[in-house]
Amino acid sequence: MKAIMISFDQAHYDGVIAALDRTNVRGFTMMQDTQGRGSKTGDPHYGSHAWPSMCSTIFTIVEDEQEEPLMKRLKALDEDTEMLGLRAFSWTIDKCI
Predict the structure, then answer these.
(1) What strands, in cross-sheet order, belong to the sheet with 2-9?
(2) What is 2-92's CATH topology?
């Protein structure tokens, strides 16, 4: 199994949910109003007067075969609107109860 963390500009919400749906990923945990700053480009997301946009973060655990299709969809979504910001990270899960 794989854990995937997706951090994204809130404008990407519908696209991220669609990517989860299209890859048959049902379960996830979402945290709204997360803050961050991209490591390469893009504006900070602080929810302040100067930097008003905000992020959301989704955590999901998927079967190994779901990881690659989901990551490809997320990459395509990010590439469509790079300045908004979307990052996804995955790692192996040893146990899940």
Answers:
(1) 29-34, 55-62, 2-9, 86-92
(2) Alpha-Beta Plaits (3.30.70)
